Amino acid sequence: MDSAVLADDPTDALSSLPRRSGRRAAGQVRFFYGPMDCGKSTLALQIDHNHARQGREGMLLVRHDRSGQPKISSRIGITRGAVEVNEDLDIRELVRGRWSASRPVDYLIVDEAQFLTASQVDQLAELADDVQVDVYCFGIATDFQSRLFPGSRRLFELADLIQAVQVEVLCWCGSSGRFNARVVDGRVIRAGDTVLVADTGQDGASAGAAVPDGRDLPDQESVTVRYQVLCRRHFRAGDLGPIATGQGQLSLA
Ligand SMILES: [Zn+2]
């Protein structure tokens, strides 16, 4: 099939994006994944910095940022404003809007990418293939039930490069932590909505629940939700360690 024909298709959401000549044929979609606190947001901001320093234009996107503001915030204190990606957002339209304002988009950085819909990941792949946008996604692979998040699943299926973030997060026992346990009132919870965002605070200490839509939590005032990284053995056993009750994992140090 002739790609020029595709480009002229008015139903193509990218049809108003000018193709950039003199560049490589396609961008790349990269997915960096790891458990909470492994430094994904810090890496995201470092990559943004590296690209911006070379004069490239980027957009930062995030879903359910822990700060409650549309920004990418790392736990070591660096923060940058970002566009909140809600469930209905067509990321191609977002890029097209930027483009029609004469602002190029060379790369996208997406934090909390596990919360993307599968369709939004498809849109990212389309942006990479058709208009050479480089896409960097950062997220958690599996949810509190140890199942792949929909966004992460689609990224594993489509990404050109998949990389575990190298900073190792430890379970309380010292083993490598790979699972994010949802903890309510000091107990590991294994059922409920996939997405339930808790604010773990700048210092990693436990904080009250921040529930985007409040579903399935009729009495939010009395419920404290937090997440704790565990090794597989202790995730399966629901064992939060000797002094887990009411404390964030960093307080163990
Ligand atoms: Zn363990």
Automatic annotation (TrEMBL):
The keyword Nucleotide-binding applies. It catalyses: thymidine + ATP = dTMP + ADP + H(+). It comes from the Bacteria. This is Thymidine kinase. Its EC number is 2.7.1.21. The keyword Acetylation does not apply. InterPro entries: P-loop_NTPase, Thymidine_kinase. One of its GO terms (cellular component) is cytosol. Keywords: ATP-binding, DNA synthesis, Kinase, Nucleotide-binding, Transferase. Residues 1-21 are annotated as: Disordered. Belongs to the thymidine kinase family. GO terms for biological process: DNA biosynthetic process; thymidine metabolic process. SUPFAM superfamilies: P-loop containing nucleoside triphosphate hydrolases. GO terms for molecular function: ATP binding; thymidine kinase activity. Gene3D superfamilies: P-loop containing nucleotide triphosphate hydrolases. It holds the Pfam family TK.
